[in-house]
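Two entries, shown back to back:
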Amino acid sequence: MNAEFAFVDELVPGIRWDAKYATWDNFTGKPVDGYLANRIVGTRALCAGLHHAQEEAASRGFGLLVWDGYRPQRAVDRFLRWSHEPEDGRTKQRHYPRIDRAAMFRQGYVATRSGHSRGSTVDLTLYDLATGELVRMGGHHDLMDPVSHHGARRVAPTEAENRAHLRAVMETAGFVPYASEWWHYTLQDEPFPDTYFDFPVTTGATPG
């Protein structure tokens, strides 16, 4: 494994995480290929950026909860195969209520070559430091719908304000937002802009 990768929680103490694709709580309805442990991995540059973001979030009364970081290419390949499987309805209402599976790729919610596989893209949200509760964002992770877009009109004012807080936090730390997903940010100066990795996320020693 490349020495430039690490477990995010080891380099950003106190960060919270829930690696959705290592669980049954994701749009495929089961753990995804390549996610063998509920840990978040990313480049060391990503971790440094998240450390900065965590400090900025704390100054606003928030903490960070990370849902995904580095994503093995084999997981992306699994998403593509899943999109061609018959619809069973198990996750449709929660994750893609108004489109079919194949439209996830056509509309840019899922990519055949994901920035996550380069190791410096992250999916995350905010929680309230005082209560520990996730803040309201007007939609959950991987809700593939226009309501998830930055500037979506069907979002309540408080939810829009929370999205703006997250965006300000991440942009201050050197991240760039993705227009269609309020939770998705990529490090502007990512170290591997043209490399897509495929090592699995496992337990054990720190990557590298």
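entry 2 starts here
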Amino acid sequence: MISTKKIIENIPNALKTVNISGLGKKTQGKVRDIYISKGKRVFITTDRQSAFDKVLGYIPFKGQVLTRLSVFWFEKTRDIVANHLISMPDPNVLIVKECKLIPIEMVVRGYITGVTDTSIWGSYEKGERVIYGIKFPEGLKKNQKLPENVITPTTKADFGLHDERLAEKDILKKKIVDPKIWKQMKKVTLALFERGQKICDKAGIILVDTKYEFGLDDKGKLILIDEMHTPDSSRYWIKKSYKDRLKKGLEPESYDKETLRIWFKDHGYKGEGKIPKMPLKFIAKMSSLYMEIYEKITGKKFTPDLTKNVSKRIKDNLMV
């Protein structure tokens, strides 16, 4: 991993967006620029940093971490469910299969925590005990392990809009997905999460919660899409200090985007109003955090590509 000084030097080179002619129709998500053409999608993962459904700034090398981590996890879980990965032609790029999106985010949680409006802790703290159609027991404390892993699905909102909660009865009543596919989605979601928890446990990390997205391929077969077990889509805690910090009422040491959410919350921002500007040292801290989680999970050293003109490098690699 590189030094704080080197990260700060590379902040101006962070990848904000990419415009490439001849790749097909371009769409843009919170973090990715996506090109659609001939049954494939080109996923370009930028360094845009999102939270509270807003882009809050740019974290150098973040896109590279998300890309490489997704590849790692896709390879580790192919036996559970097929995924959309075809190739990785660039540190920030995945070529994936085109499929029909199922508009449900399969959020799965092993612990009761969170600071956002869709978190179960926020509702539990207010006195709710039936959340996402699931009954939770009395006496739970923030950051405590749940009796069992639970699925708390949300809508798949367009960029700039908020995801909304879904209960199983709503999904079936509104016929968002075929009941047989929904049953398979639930089974696969729990299996993927359990696999992730086991691998992370060996690395000294707790996989707290995550989200999966699914689609249907041209034969109507369920397929895992988007990203997988990245610090953007997952919450990671350090296993070694978890129990002691929980006992003392302290927040767990985290290796994920929650560090960023807490920083913005502490600076008076939760998605509305003027966005506070992140200091250079905090940007470097977040960049280091992303690289560290890659190294801990994979057991491999993360060596970022230091190309200054990232956009040109991506264009060159895609035009080979």
